[in-house]
Design goal:
binds magnesium ion, binds ligand L3UKIRZJ, alpha/beta, globular, 9-stranded mixed β-sheet, ComB-like_sf, 32% helix, EC 3.1.3.71, 23% strand, 2-phosphosulfolactate phosphatase activity, putative 2-phosphosulfolactate phosphatase, 230 residues
Length: 230
């Protein structure tokens, strides 16, 4: 198995057996929390207009996400894992639209297997990828750190690589420290920006035990994240 780490939202070469799209702060931490709350599936929308159009089809759904990190007028939820943890999402579909993670995921759909994760489910996802890698037609695992420059997603990608290669060269504590120190985390600690809640970083910078991974499939060309129990 070959492993490649890239940053940003693509485009990506069509040569990978696995794409793991990583968004620590905050989209795919939010996704894990939504599934833990009983959400049935997460539909990925490339922009606000598509998100509203998809709600006409997924009538029992909630719109979640952000523009510039902030709540989108007309959406039900923003991009906060802390608020997602308190929301009643049991049995609901979530339509998610975000700047980095969702944008990268919709560009990454053509690998044999596509997963999304934050740090919170990174270990579980890496261990699952290990179970399928021998059957890949294209033995390349591409770890996509969806933010083009911030260290939160890159630290998670390097952590997953260290698990996949069984080098175990990064401790979870060291990765959590890099997430907290990353550029995009800083606004959550700024008292002049109360719209960003430091509790979100507590969710994003820790491993959260659960028994599923998040796989992306397509239905009528719409990318849908489903929970796969492991
Ligand atoms: O809301 C988020 O956490 C980010 C936007 S920003 O980097 O905080 O401005 O979006 P995401 O797609 O979850 O990285
Ligand atoms: Mg992010």
């Amino acid at each position: 198995m070959r492993i490649e780490i890239v940053q940003g939202s693509g485009p990506f070469a069509p040569d990978a057996g696995v794409h793991v799209v990583i968004d620590v702060i905050r989209a795919f931490t939010v996704a894990q929390v939504a599934f833990m709350g009983g959400a049935s599936e997460i539909v990925l929308a490339r922009d606000k207009e598509q998100a509203f159009a998809l709600r006409e089809v997924w009538t029992d759904s909630l719109l979640a996400g952000e523009i510039d990190g902030l709540a989108v007028p007309g959406f039900d939820l923003d991009n906060s894992p802390a608020r997602m943890a308190k929301a009643d999402v049991a049995g609901k579909s979530i339509i998610q639209m975000t700047t980095n993670g969702v944008k990268a995921a919709v560009q990454a759909l053509f690998a044999e297997h596509v997963f999304v994760t934050g740090f919170s489910n990174a270990r579980q996802t890496a261990l699952f990828v290990q179970t399928i890698e021998k059957k890949l037609k294209r033995p390349l695992v591409r770890l996509i750190a969806s933010h083009a420059t911030s260290d939160d997603d890159l630290a998670c990608a390097e952590y997953m690589e260290s698990i996949l290669t069984e080098r175990q060269s990064f401790s979870a504590e060291a990765v959590a420290a890099r997430i907290r120190a990353s550029d995009v985390a800083q606004k959550f600690f700024d008292p002049a920006r109360p719209e960003f809640d430091a509790e979100d970083i507590d969710w994003c910078a820790r491993e959260i035990s659960c028994s599923f991974v998040m796989r992306v499939t397509q239905r009528s060309e719409i990318p849908i994240v489903e929970r796969v129990d492991v």
